Amino acid sequence: MDRIENLDCLLNKQKELEHTMDIRKANHDNTEYREILICGGTGCVSSQSLKLLENLNQEIKNHGLENSARASITGCFGFCEKGPIVKVFPEDVFYVGVKPEDASNIVSTHLVQGRRVERLLYEEPTLKKKVHTQHEMEFYKKQERIALRNCGLINPELIEEYIANRGYEALGRCLLEMSPKDVIHIIKTAGLRGRGGGGFPTGLKWEYASKQKSDVKYVVCNADEGDPGAFMDRSILEGDPHSVIEAMTINGYAIGANKGFVYIRAEYPLAIKRLKNALKQARQAGLLGRDIMNSGFDFDIDIKYGAGAFVCGEETALIHSIEGGRGEPTTKPPFPAESGLWGKPTSVNNVETFANVPAIIINGAAWYNKLGSHTSKGTKVFALAGKINNVGLVEVPMGITLREIIYDIGGGIKDGKKLKAVQTGGPSGGCITADQLDVEIDYESLYSIGSMMGSGGMIVIDEDNCIVDIAKFYLEFTVEESCGKCTPCRVGNKRLYEMLTKITEGKGTEEDLETMRNLAETIKLTSLCGLGQTAPNPVLSTMKYFYDEYLAHVRDKKCPAGVCQALLQYHISADKCIGCTKCARVCPVSCISGKVKEVHVIDQELCIKCGACFEACPVNAISKG
Amino acid sequence: MKTRTLSQDLYKQLEEYIDSIEANDAALIEVLHEAQHLFGYLPMEVQLFIGEKLNIPASKVFGVVSFYSYFTTEPKGKYVINICTGTACFVRNANAIVKEFENTLNIKTGETTGNGMYTIDCLRCVGACGLAPVVMVNDDVYGKVTVDDVQKIIAKYTE
């Protein structure tokens, strides 16, 4: 693309390209032309969506439809459970679970004959009928897409499509029509807060950095999304990398920085590729680099790679990692806004926070402020995962209830099971119980019930999951990821983990529970950084709400969910047993006795709880618990 | 100084890479990434080489290598089996998949089979939670893996 010289030049370009969006936004009468968008996010690419794209374009060619149809990739639609997702415009038809070999069917039936491919349509479980368009899907009805506005709409590899949907307009307006103070004022009054988990007001952070006197300042984008089960930032970088570049540049202008870094996990190869491509395009178009849009403002961005350390999501640790060292945190203050990268004032913001910025500048603070709850404005992206029907990425207004997310959007619990808890905030967060489903979600309300917003991972846990086992899982994670610098985190969490292990092995006592609680409180109070200060949360919150389950483990030596192997007991029901001897034959320790056609019995002393008999019984006479 | 036993050609490539960038303290992590990409792992001799080239003490190089889980000082198998044990995979029974791989290949997680063919590793979330539980073999991704699939997956990588 030619260099964009000024704001008019950008707006002209936007006008010139706008029509490419018409068909996708359904404000087009020309129904002859069709566009097929295929999800090109990591999840769908893993399910061969790129092969599907190739096949679709080949089929379009085979049918001689090159002038009336085209297929291309786009960012994540969010409906990852049923990927790969294919959308046909302008009809707004949503196909799910599409395989590469379905390409010929889509082209011959949909494009040529104008009929929908029924078998690929999504069946709404609540209605028990196939849904013909995306806007009829319950999954999307309560969503509000701001940070994800371009995901599923534009091709992330083309800067032209980003510009067509008002991309870089916010940057142009900031550089050429506003002062840095104006920019900060808008972000402040919009009420945007950090989406990485902490929820610190973004405008204040920018203002603080802008007031520092320094020859050099930096902007850092935290894309070290280490929270397992969370993939919001990855999806934004894969689906809309330009929005992050644009927002970082705006941040640079607002605080007086000329250099930015994106710190990204090395485990996200696709996001890195798209980001690199976007940086190159932005530089070519003069939207990044020297004298952007002839405004006199210079800004450029480098990519820095993480190397698998969860603690680097903490901003001071992240800064040390960019500097090339061990990613160990340091105490705050000084805050990075005062003394960050190489001792210079640094504004560190998360990917999702950045993705909101251009939309706020274009639409105004009042527009953004209207959305959300009293203390938390705008929307939040959540990654829904675990035992839920619609695993995927959702963006909802703050203040929505968990019930709406789990049941209306998420389609309820998998296999009709009972919801036990929802874990938010990852290894730093806690569990929300089924009784708390009507709590309105925002930073403060989640904190008040012992969890936290975190970066947006939302893991649904059902009756088959053991709560002690879940707490142990998070502690194991923290123990592995603790950097070892401070003792409460390094040693304390290890001890907590050992006690949890003891409990799941049936060796725990009630006294252990008390010790665990005390230890957890101490770790919270005395750890150096956010990782240690929040690491005991999964234990404290599960102990608070599921104390009975802990007691069952230590007092009755039972695991109510039937997960903890050592606490399981297998029993053969005398009523159901038909004496077929199958169980006795598979038992590796020969602890099942009984004659043919007589009731069999398990010797509990010898049983190693391997579960072989349970699997072998043809009449389900063996129970575990 | 320990002699260099690994391919001189790879050292040359690494040297060219270091010469092509601004070689300072801040470049250490990216140089280590490149070195691991070239050699497959970061044994002591490679770490010493990097320290010398960047003028960084070997102790610091080792400190960084040992801090980050992405870096390995042991060679890996031809096929690295990465089982995701992130939360979404965990609640969908990834542990059973790990056990099945360990039993089938007769090694523990983090180890490599004697013939240098397979390494089992666990990783935390590839972000494909819709496909949980997820297994990756080098760059191939397998989604919604069951215990029964384990044998079939291994069977695809025998040469």
State the gist of this model:
Chain A has 625 residues and is an alpha/beta fold.
What's the structural blueprint in terms of helices and strands?
The complex is a heterodimer of chains A (625) and B (159).
Chain A: H1 7-22, E1 34-39, H2 42-46, H3 49-62, E2 69-74, E3 86-89, E4 93-95, H4 103-112, E5 122-124, E6 129-131, H5 138-141, H6 159-164, H7 169-177, H8 180-190, H9 202-211, E7 218-223, H10 232-239, H11 241-255, E8 259-264, H12 269-284, E9 300-305, H13 315-322, E10 346-350, H14 351-363, H15 365-370, E11 379-386, E12 392-397, H16 402-409, E13 419-424, E14 430-433, H17 443-448, E15 457-462, H18 467-481, H19 487-504, H20 510-526, H21 530-534, H22 537-545, H23 547-554, E16 570-572, H24 582-586, E17 592-593, E18 601-602, H25 612-616, E19 622-624
Parallel strand pairs in A: 1-2, 7-8, 7-10, 8-9, 11-15
Antiparallel strand pairs in A: 1-3, 3-4, 5-6, 11-12, 13-14, 13-15, 16-19, 17-18
Helix pairs in contact in A: 3-4, 7-11, 7-14, 8-9, 8-11, 10-12, 11-14, 18-19, 19-20, 20-22, 22-23
Chain B: H1 8-20, H2 28-39, H3 44-54, H4 58-67, E1 79-84, H5 87-91, H6 94-105, E2 118-123, E3 135-137, E4 140-142, H7 149-155
Parallel strand pairs in B: 1-2
Antiparallel strand pairs in B: 1-3, 3-4
